[in-house]
Amino acid sequence: MAAKIGIPRGMYYYKHFPFTKTFLTEIGAEIVPSPETTKEILDKGVQYCIDDACLPVKVYHGHAHYLRDKADFLLIPRLTSISKGEYICPKFGGLPEMVKYSVPQLPRILDVEVNMLRSRWGLDKALYRLAYGLGIKNPFRIRQAAGKALSAHRSFKGRVLEGHSPNDVIDGKPPKYINGRDTVGLVAHPYLLYDSYINMNLLNKLTERGIRYVTTEMVDPHIIEQRCMELPKRMFWSSGKELIGSALYLMDNSRIDGVLFLTAFSCGIDSLVGEFIEKYARRDYRKPFMVLNIDEHTGDAGFNTRIEAFKDLLNGRCKDATDLSSHG
Ligand code: SF4
Fold it and tell me: Which domains does the chain have, with CATH numbers?
């Protein structure tokens, strides 16, 4: 019988799920993803996770708790590095232990380390270890599964770069076309942007107000890389680099009317990166810029007020822009 592997819907689920799903299915495992975040999942996450953790890590604990009696194994990879010469964030490295020692009665955790700090072979090593741990020892089968997983990932990433939501691509839903006068850049980690429960349906709130958006995930990684080369120092945190590179690109883009930075309270990387982006926004770009900070206590009413205020800033900019001469 195929082993059932639980995949918590959190953290890099929104980046890597098609890859993981294809690889595991190809080596004969059955996948059990947790559902979209609900109040109960968030509450369990808050109950079992340490207080100081960021919101996405708490939510992840809730998803692991949801899956505790629904799978034979839980896949919580130890993501040390996913790009050569860069780390992600220490929370990704410690996630298997945090979950293992906080949430009771979990099935066995598959915690293979993915470490591509020195080379991309770090991923191959992790895939072999994962397959061996599940009793699959045929190297040809593992290599073939890895190849298919990579193709699935490329096709997924291609659709996201075209402007589709990762959730729609994963769930096979048709793309949504949004009409609106303004287009904003949405800078954030994918697990904040695409978890509509924790971000209080931010994407829908924007579209209901006639605001289109381009997210960090929709910016080509080559552009992000290029923009980060302009920085005085090399960024060695992959997740912070994505935020800074996409923010600089979006602020510079004439089709973007303003930039929203969605950030998790108590995220060390965001506090640093946010300061940096804000400094650039105020100094070099004359576009509306706003930081939206969320945690498990953020209320809908206050959040709506912030979005309305941002919309007013956009409207003000459009009005003022008509007073400018066509050549600036
Ligand atoms: S980058 Fe920030 S939000 Fe993401 S896991 Fe690390 S601390 Fe949490």
Answer: 4-161 (3.40.50.11890), 177-321 (3.40.50.11900)
pLDDT digits (tens, 9 = 90+) for 33-49: 999 999 999 999 999 99
- Expressed in angstroms and rounded, the spacing between residue 13 Cα and the centre of ligand 1 is 14
Q: Which of 189, 193, 190, 212 is CA-nearest to residue 201?
A: 193
Is residue 57 within 6 Å of ligand 1 at its C-beta?
yes
**What would the 3-class secondary structure string for 83-138 be?**
ECCEECCHHHHHHHHHHHCCCCCCCEEECCEEECCCCCHHHHHHHHHHHHHCCCCC
| pTM across the whole model | 0.93
Residue 295 CA to ligand 1 center (angstroms) comes to 12
Amino acid of residue 1: M
Percent of the chain with pLDDT over 70: 96
Task: Report the nearest atom of ligand 1 relative to the CA of 237.
Answer: 1
Is 192 a pocket residue for ligand 1 (Cβ < 6 Å)? no
Using CA positions, which residue lies closest to atom 6 of ligand 1? 89
pLDDT the model gives residue 265: 85
Predicted confidence at residue 324, as pLDDT, reads 44
Cα(235) to ligand 1 centroid in Å equals: 16
Q: Return the bridge partners of 116, or none.
A: none
The CB of 264 under 6 Å from ligand 1? The reply is: yes
Residue 87 has pLDDT above 50, yes or no: yes
Look up residue 14 and give its two tokens.
């929104």
The predicted-structure confidence for 231-277, as pLDDT tens digits, reads as follows 888 888 999 999 999 999 999 999 999 999 999 988 989 998 999 99
